[in-house]
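Researcher: Structure prediction, please.
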Amino acid sequence: MPTAKENKALGLMALAGLTPYQEKDGEEYMNEKQLDHFRKILSAWRAQLREEVDRTVHHMQDEAANFPDPVDRAAQEEEFSIELRTRDRERKLIKKIEKTLKRIEDDDFGFCDACGIEIGVRRLEARPTADLCIDCKTLAEIKEKQLQG
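Model: Predicted structure follows.
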């Protein structure tokens, strides 16, 4: 049974018209085919997020009303607040996607920022913006939990 993250990754690939990348025996890691595969996923994801931002702007313009009832006004303000927080997270994600696309262009994609080893195609399928291998990410999360106490 796929996890939520795996379902999201599969949704991204379906959006981009892609199937999960099938590595071949002896294939060089992060060859041009793999880079192109991830470039398509990231570009489609970025386009989808930008469309959602545009939709939110139009929705807020169309739905904005000055309700005389304080409860109705508060409900609308809460709805807009939630939408804006979501869009803010997506804006940050778009920046991360663009940073990752730049890494692909700079031939620096698919390798751990901390230790330099291969992140792995399967991990990148699940999280295309990953910049740490699973071991370094696990250690970073453990350290973060310890600092939070």
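Model: The mean pLDDT is 88.
Researcher: Thanks, that helps.
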